[in-house]
Each structure stands twice: as C-alpha cells, then as structure tokens.
Batch of 2 targets.
Target 1
Amino acid sequence: MYKAFFGLKTNPFNLSPDPAFLYRSAQHEEALANLIYGVQSRKGFIVLTGEVGTGKTTMLECLRDHLGSHQIPFACVFNSRLTPDQFFEMIAYDFDLQCSRKSKMEVLFALNNMLLDRANQNRTTALIVDEAQNLDWEVLEEIRLLGNLENRRGKMLQIILAGQPELDRKLEDRNFRQLKQRIALRCHLRPFSAAETAQYIATRLARAGMREQTVFPPELLTEIHRRTEGIPRLINSVCDNLMLTAFAMESKVATAEMLDEVSRDLHLDWPGRSRQFADLDSRASLMN
Ligand SMILES: Nc1ncnc2c1ncn2[C@@H]1O[C@H](COP(=O)(O)OP(=O)(O)O)[C@@H](O)[C@H]1O
Ligand SMILES: [Mg+2]
C-alpha cells in the first residue's frame, strides 16, 4: 500500500519466511552453515531451536534452497500434528516412493531401498521437520528409528528437527535419551541485538529497493529494538505498521508517537512497558 510512497519495489516487511530477504546475522549465518554441514557430512540428527519468530522456518527455507541446488532429495514435515500413518504417507509423497503410501510397512520398505541405493552411490538424503516441539511421542519415536538407519559411511537419512525451546525439554525426557545422544549438532537462534535490529531493518528495506534507509531515525530504531525485544517477526509487524501509519500521515519519517500508536494497536508488551505508559498516563492526567 505504501510502496509507491516510499519508492519501494516490494513490501519490505512481509511475514513470510522468504530467503530473498535474508539478513545474514552472525548467528543465522552460523545456524545455516551448521545445517548444511550437518547434512553434507551425514551427522544424523541436527536440532535447531529458537523462540517463536526468531527465523527457524526461514533457515529451513534456505536449507531447502541449498539442498535443491545440490540435488539432495528431502522430505519436509511442516504439519506436526500428524499420526504416525500420516507421517509416513507424507514422506512417501515427498520422496515420490512407488508403493502403497497408506501402508507404513510398504513405505518403510521403499524408503529403506531408496536410502540404500543412494548411500551406495555415496549420496545423501534429508528429512526436515518444522514445529517439532508439537510432534506426538509416537511420531518422534518413528523419527528416531529412521535416524538409526546407517551404513559404514554414516547415517543414511539426515534429520533436521526445528522447534521452539520446548523441543529441547521434550528431548530431555527419559523416553528420548537415546535420540538425545544421537544429536550431532545443535543450533539455537537468539533474538537480535540492538545493532543487529538496525541492520536487519536496513537490509530488508534495501532488498525492497531503498538503498539507504531514512524512515526510522536512530533513536526510534533503539526503541523498536526494545519493544520487540529483537524478535524478527515482531520487528516486521512493527515496521510494516509504522510505514503504513507514516504513509497515512504523509510523512517519510516514522516518529515516536507513531510507535506508541502502533505498539498499542499490536498489543505489544515489553519489559518496563507498564511503567512507561503509566508515566505517560499520569503526565496526561496532570495536563488535563
Ligand atoms: N535472518 C533473517 N533475515 C530475514 N528475515 C528474517 C530473518 N529471521 C527471521 N526473519 C523474518 O522474521 C519472520 C519470522 O521468521 P520465521 O522463520 O517464520 O520464524 P520462526 O519459524 O522461528 O517462528 C519472517 O517474516 C522472516 O522472514
Ligand atoms: Mg516457524
């Protein structure tokens, strides 16, 4: 809506996990390098954790691009509320296994054959599971068993489990001691620092066509970081709403007042928020 007003080609703060807008923060770079290294060196299990909105799905999208361009086949499970049967059916579809996809036995047999074939050609295969913190125990157990398949060169199926920090707690459970021991690589995504938040915003705007960002002054960037606590998804929502508000007010620059309004509209909550707004409210009542 505000694209033309700000001279942009595309919307800079979309909520989709689009690798075209990737900001390579040190930790995102490291996480992606770990995922790629883990798959290529056949490490078996790789776990990626992070709070909601820190960029896990975006990392998986980047990994998919990488695997695709290196002809490494993969299956993706994005719906974690699956029964074991549905899980096997999904894998069978993704790997295009020629078998009765409704039969777990047949899928396992076909999958095993495919993995052996590929391992004999010294090639690898991956399974990507997002939102893994929601997986049923039974499905996690099936995944653990798939991770056991190996030949002398290493694991035949590289399994990436991505999820919220609950995933780590789930893997702590006694039932999953075995799986936990098999996790070869772990990465964790933390929220951005203040400097990263500013770079992140500038990178997204640059990708959308604004070479030098002039919409958010430095003090406002600091405040955006504070209120979003450096969570990329929240930063996107706040910046998108700020640009919309600025556009509506025909201003090329976002202001602190606009940020207050947007924070209220988005019901943002951050440490120290109530005190700050209480101050504002008491000041307002003093002036009345
Ligand atoms: N490093 C990054 N570069 C660009 N955009 C990012 C990055 N990290 C997160 N985002 C953006 O933040 C939003 C949330 O990311 P997402 O991958 O969906 O988080 P999660 O899966 O951890 O909840 C998306 O709009 C995504 O594009
Ligand atoms: Mg996600």
Note: The longest strand covers residues 157-163.
Target 2
Amino acid sequence: MSIELPEAYILAEQMNKVLIGKQIKSYDLYDYERLQKIGFLNKNIDEFDLLVDCKIISVISRGNLIRVILNKDVNLLIGPEYGGIVLYHEDNKNLSEKLHMKIIFTDETIFTIRLKGMGLIYTVKSSDLEHSYLYKRDFSDVLSPLEDRFTSNHFSELLKNSNRGIKSILVGKEAILVGLSNSAFQDIIYRAKLFPKIKGSKLSEQQKGALFRAIKNVVDDRIRLGGKFQFIDLFGKKGQYLPAMGPNMKGKICSDCGSGIEKLSVGGGQVYYCPLCQAE
Ligand SMILES: [Zn+2]
C-alpha cells in the first residue's frame, strides 16, 4: 500500500513524540543506487553528511510527505510514496536487514527507513527545498483536508466551476485537495454514494455535502485507527483501518444493499464500487 496523508500524519506525530531534541551521531545508506537513479535520493550522496551532529527540531507532514526539520537549516524529507517502513528503535536489537537508511542518535537510539517501490529520502538545506518535486507538490497552496480552512463552504466553492470527473478533482496533479490517492478516493465516493465518473459540475448541494463529510470521515477514521491495515507505524504497530471500498472488497457484496461489488477503470486506475448505491 502507499503511505498517504493519514499515515504520513501519524508518522510525523509519533516522530514528534520521540525524536525531538535528538542529535544525529551517524548514518548509513544501503541499496540506494536505484532510488538515486530515479531522482528519489540525493544525487550527491555526501549531502547526507549535513545531517551529522544536527539536532531534530520538529517534524511536520503535508500530503504524503514528511519533513524532518533539523538545526543549521537542514531538512530530511521522507516520502514513503509506495509504502515503506519507518521505524524507531530503542536499541540495535531486531533491526531488519532490509533498510535504505539507518540513523543513529548520540543516545544510541536508532531510526530506520525502508522504502518499497519508489519513495523519497532527501537531505536538503531549507533554501533548496523548492528543488524537490515532492516538496513542491505537497507543501503547496493546495488545500489539505487536515487544515481548518477545509470547510464545507470552501470545498463547495472549489467544486463550483469544476467540469472535470470527480476523480481528477480529488486525486492527482490537478486535484483541489492534497494527499488523496486512488485508494482513499474509492472509500470516499462509496461513503458519499457517488458514481466514480460523475462530473464535479453535476453534483447537487446535497452530494457536495456528502462528499465533504466522506473526505473528513475517511481521513479522520484512518488517523484514529492508526492508519490503513497494511500500514506499520513508527513503533511497529499495524494500522486497524479497513477501507469500506477498494480492492479488499473484490468479489464481495455491498454491506448496505447486498449488490455485488464491481470494478471500473477511471483515470488510469481501477475503482471498485457498488453499482446500486453508487448508480450513475
Ligand atoms: Zn450498495
């Protein structure tokens, strides 16, 4: 699974609890050449030396990206885009052999990152943050469902002139919100009882309200339940959130109406939906 907005938020909050004030003694990188080739790790590996001796000041997340802010204007960006395991260890027992990065703090506690597929591990000075594509994408002006300015009125306003399909409105480069993926999308439109290909301009006021609530509820529930079920948090605990709709519902029936779940191809991805509850 990919680590999305709720899981990135959980990791950042947990990192804030245990990593603040810790000073980096050393680091190791492993098996990173492929990530480097596709631009997901510093081209110049020596740039990671910036981390040594730095102290962690705070950790914030936006969209799917985590920004670890250190002193001396140094940042570590972590984007476990396609899944990955980010762990905190009290000592060096039980460390996985499959790691991309290991950071050892001066108190001998350890922080490790293992990415799956693609993802970002990037050390960068604050003045160069804009050079990171993922930073620009997620730490942007685009509204986040976790912000106070994400209100029903503001959301309706953004939907007003949108003649695109609902998926491109919510997911991807042109989205009006940051951090929602195809996985969250399926869950959200099932809860809001919307056809996966409905146009934004066709939504009634009632449907806009249902969509707003569904987004809020999916994000809030995923955070409250410790992330999606395949997610592993900073302390190795598995997430408990099972999506109401998605690939996990393949071959099953809708719990609301008993119809068989179907699949549609929408915007370059598969979308599972209930043909009755989410009729066209
Ligand atoms: Zn149904």
Note: The two ends are 29 Å apart (CA to CA).
